[in-house]
Amino acid sequence: MPLLTLTDISLAYGHHPLLDKVDFQVDAGERVCLLGRNGTGKSTLFRVITGEAEQDDGEIWRKDALRISHLLQEVPADNTHTIYEVVAHGLGKLGDILSDYHNAVHHVGNKEVPLNVLSDLQHQIEVQDGWNLNQKIETILSKLDLPEDKQLKDCSGGVRRRVMLAQALVSEPELLLLDEPTNHMDISAITWLEEFLIAYQGALIFITHDRTFLKNVATRIIELDRGNLTSWPGNYERYLEKKEELLAMEERTNAKFDKKLAEHEAWVRQGIKARRTRNEGKVRRLEAMRKQRSQRISQQGRVSLNVEEGEQSGKRVVDLQHINFKYDDSTIINDFSTNIMRGDRIGIMGPNGCGKSTLLKIILGEIKPESGKVIMGTKLEIAYFDQQREILDSEKTVRENISEGSDYVNVRGRSRHVIGYLKSFLFPPERIDSPVKILSGGERNRLLLARLFTKPANMMVLDEPTNDLDVDTLELLEDLLEEYEGTLLLVSHDRAFLDNVVTSTIVFEGDGKFEEYVGGYEDMLRQRKAPMQTENNLKIRKKEQPPEQPKKSKKKLTYKETRELEQLPGLIEQLEIEQDQLQQQIGSSEFYQQDKDKITETLARMEEVNRELENAYKRWEYLDAV
User: How far apart are CA 542 and CA 524, in angstroms?
Assistant: First the structure.
């Protein structure tokens, strides 16, 4: 059943058409991913859907009383409301009553609340059946690791974004619009969000640069390109195949296609084509590098330090030996050792606030550990991608930030005209003399990357480089890093990016412990002895940690419990098989063409299987620990 229909929608700012006779329909239960390069009008399309922006022409039909929630890409401004209040506000007037009750119970401002006021609030909540909604607020706050009584003005940009995501989710709207929902989220929060959205029974339209998130969530892809909207039923792999076929057909039927298209359009075409064959050569090279890294890691500790130093003379970047670091009484890093050599590509992973930046600063020599030894290599020239983009001068133009006003820049030993160089980072000539302060987040990230690659550096440090980048720019960055021959340190929550770039990962395991694994994110999952320390990673736990046969009890189980423990692995396996089958059904392009009752029945069964599987796993863990 359709929830929303757009017919011949057009919208232009000046002479630049963002939407050109766009037709689009979203049905109940669909999960649609909106793709398009930065600046093509994706966020504007969202604003048209919600009614915040008015189209120049065309018609919009919305289902009567359609409930829509919209997560904006921008981080909200400072305010004095608590996180609980901001999230509850997503429920309207009832949310405000719940906030008043929450504050009254917790004696906000150390003021005693009269019993009659508390009683009146309780009555209003009961009359409107609000206790279940209060439970939803608390569950989402817990899952997104949000401190409920902290004021929004005291939170970082990443935490504020998670707060606004919680506000959008709590009302369970019929249509949910998410603009870059995974920005500033760690992997555990992203995997929880994936599971939540897969089981979500409302319709979803989302914008994302996270290709793994896209693959796991989307049932249909729509692409906004030069004002035109194209729909691609099915998953991301099918989109890439069909997109390549369409581009090849355009080339055959239009001999002047390349001349009419801007230079970056030709690059996009090549990028699309490369995604499928991607790089068989690159993959082989990455695998070879990972194998070399594996052999070196397995040899560590078997060779004396003096011999190793002699053999690695001139190749060592940094050697960390038994590093410890505390902040106040909290252990940030506990006895960590690693040896980083020239040419290594290392990803650093872990939840927000776990100590990744601290470890990075110790590796770079910016701060000293409390104990342990840091041996730095010689002749290091470091290029640093700052997550806050503080390296850029916002008052200077794009050109001045790259070349100090010169018409030429030196890239890998050869001179290139600044306009041609910036075109490869998708900056049109008319944008080159614009001040940096008016650029979008994605444009600033592209500019910072362009600046980095003009600096002579044998070591590159990238702190969350993928935030605000579209998929095409992400793949450009992967190509550039593939050609880079120096050492790479990368902090990222983008699973696909890690898989395509790094040769090893350093992963936070809890209690200050960091462990190193060979390969990218998927390789790390296969090697781990235990899942990431998060209750949100049930899915990873199931796939990577299948239950073993029951261990010998420490204390005697009853006969019934023993039989239950023996049967649980088989039950879990059956539920996992059914879960995979249901996910394939829901992810198919034909799923939402079925009868409404069949769709509802399948989605309900999916939710039930997820619940049964979680309960079975908890029961198995409990009995196995007895």
Answer: 15
CA angle 58, 63, 68 (to 5 degrees): 95
Query: pLDDT (tens digit, 9 = 90+) per residue, 301-359?
Result: 332 222 222 233 347 889 999 999 988 888 899 999 999 988 899 999 988 778 888 89
DSSP summary character for residue 291: H
Query: 360, 361, 337: which is closest to 513 by C-alpha?
Result: 337
Q: How many CB atoms lie within 10 A of CB 240?
A: 17
Is the Cβ–Cβ distance between 63 and 171 less than 8 Å? no
Structure tokens at 406: 């010169």
The fold of 559-625 is Helix Hairpins (1.10.287)
Rounded Cα–Cα distance for residues 348 and 490 (Å)? 6
Distance between start and end Cα atoms, the chain? 50
Average pLDDT value over all residues in the chain: 79
pLDDT in tens, 97-146: 888 888 887 754 445 666 777 788 888 888 887 888 888 898 888 888 88
Find all residues with CB under 8 Å of 473, minimum gap 6, and list them.
37, 38, 425, 426, 442, 445, 446
d(CA 198, CA 201): 8
3-state secondary structure of 122: helix
Please name the helix (run of DSSP H) or strand (run of DSSP E) that holds residue 340, with its range, or none: strand 330-341
Q: List phi, psi (to 5°) of 198.
A: -65, -35
Instruction: State what percent of residues in the chain have pLDDT above 90.
Output: 19
Query: Distance between CA atoms of 624 and 431, rounded to whole angstroms?
Result: 63
The alpha carbon of 18 is separated from its chain's Cα centroid by a whole number of angstroms, namely 26
The partner residues of 488 in beta bridges, in order of sequence, read 345, 460
Higher pLDDT, 170 or 248: 170
CB 14 within 8 A of CB 224: no
Once rounded to an integer, what is the mean pLDDT over residues 431-438?
85
Domain locations in the chain?
78-172, 238-277, 279-308+316-380+458-534, 393-456, 559-625
Q: What is the mean pLDDT of residues 600-619?
A: 78
In which band, very low, low, confident or very high, does the pLDDT at 4 lie, cut at 50, 70 and 90?
A: very high
Q: Which residues of 32-71 are buried (b: 16+ CB within 10 A; e: fewer)?
A: bbbbbbbbbbbbbbbbbbeeeeebeebeeebeeeeebbbb
* Among candidate residues 80, 332, 74, 35, the one with its CA nearest the CA of residue 184: 74
Strand 228-233 versus strand 220-225 pairing type: antiparallel
Task: Please give the C-alpha separations between residue 349 and each of 158, 241, 310, 489, in angstroms, as whole numbers.
Answer: 16, 31, 31, 11
User: In sequence order, which ranges of 438-501 are alpha helices (DSSP H)?
Assistant: 441-452, 471-483, 495-501
Name the β-bridge partners of 397.
435
Per DSSP, the three-state class of 174 is: coil
Structure confidence at residue 184 (pLDDT): 76
| CA–CA separation, 270 and 288 (whole Å) | 25
Instruction: Give the three-state DSSP class for 529.
Output: coil
Q: Which two tokens stand for residue 149?
A: 């009584």
Secondary element (H or E) of residue 221: strand 220-225
The helix, strand and coil proportions of the chain, stated in percent and rounded to the nearest 5, come to 45, 20, 30
For residue 523, pLDDT over 80 is answered with yes
Bridge partners of 230? 223
- Architecture of the 279-308+316-380+458-534 domain: 3-Layer(aba) Sandwich (3.40)
